[in-house]
Structures
1.
Amino acid sequence: MQKRPITVSYIFFYLLFSEDIWRIVAGFVCALFLGPLLTQGRNLSQGGEVMAWLMIMAIGWSVTAWPAKKITGALQRAVKRASK
């Protein structure tokens, strides 16, 4: 079996079809939108704010398992249809 060469396009499509990348991005977006709402005016220390942002990211990552699976499945089906 011949190994596939690792190119920029190979890495791009590998990441595009990875469920974990979609979940990480969703968690990061959740933290960007909800982080300031939950940490403003609470007199949290810097460590407390970092912990709150990390918890929001982790919750965003965990609740997006189903949507990430659906997104990657749809992308894979679209690529298979396009290659026929």
2.
Amino acid sequence: MQDVDLRVQLPYFLIRLAALVVITVVLAVVGVNLLLSVLIGFAVAGLLTWPLGRMQRRAAQRAAAARGAAGPPPPGAGKGKGGSA
């Protein structure tokens, strides 16, 4: 399994989530049943943001490859004494 950096994927995820929320709210305001508007929102947002999902996957793969090229972190990296790490 490939180790991915979720921080790299966060902007793409938030954009896709925003698309789902906007579509769902618009359908609910128009008068569509809430459950049906959520289901339709998932389908439409998934189709509309399909290219964005591919970019998200590629960005995560590039970040993992760059981190792999830099080598593994030394033992104890990121662990500090008394500080916020």
